[in-house]
Design goal:
Blueprint: H1 3-26, H2 31-67, H3 70-84
Helix pairs in contact: 1-2, 2-3
Length: 86
């Protein structure tokens, strides 16, 4: 399965998880159960973003290196990583 299709499938599952959390809140389910589901969504989003960041580092930055100064490309990558980790 290609990366794009895999990422889209992951995002659809995350969407389903978020809708499930909405239902849990509407049904006033136990708070710790809701928090566990939120934690699962966070972990799933972190996995997706990690895959995208890896792809960016392996592919997009390579292309960027051919277009701009290597210091600029590195600065761009570091800026993305810093913003991502906020």
């Amino acid at each position: 399965m290609d990366t794009k299709k895999s990422l889209l499938n992951r995002m659809k599952r995350i969407e389903g998880q978020v809708k499930g959390i909405e239902r849990m809140i509407e049904n006033e389910q136990y708070c710790s159960d809701i928090l566990m589901q939120i934690s699962a969504v966070r972990a799933a989003l972190n996995k997706v973003s990690g895959i995208i960041l890896e792809n960016h580092a392996k592919n997009c930055i390579k292309q960027r290196l051919s277009e701009v100064d290597s210091d600029d490309a590195l600065e761009e990558l570091l800026d993305i990583i810093i913003k991502y980790n906020k």
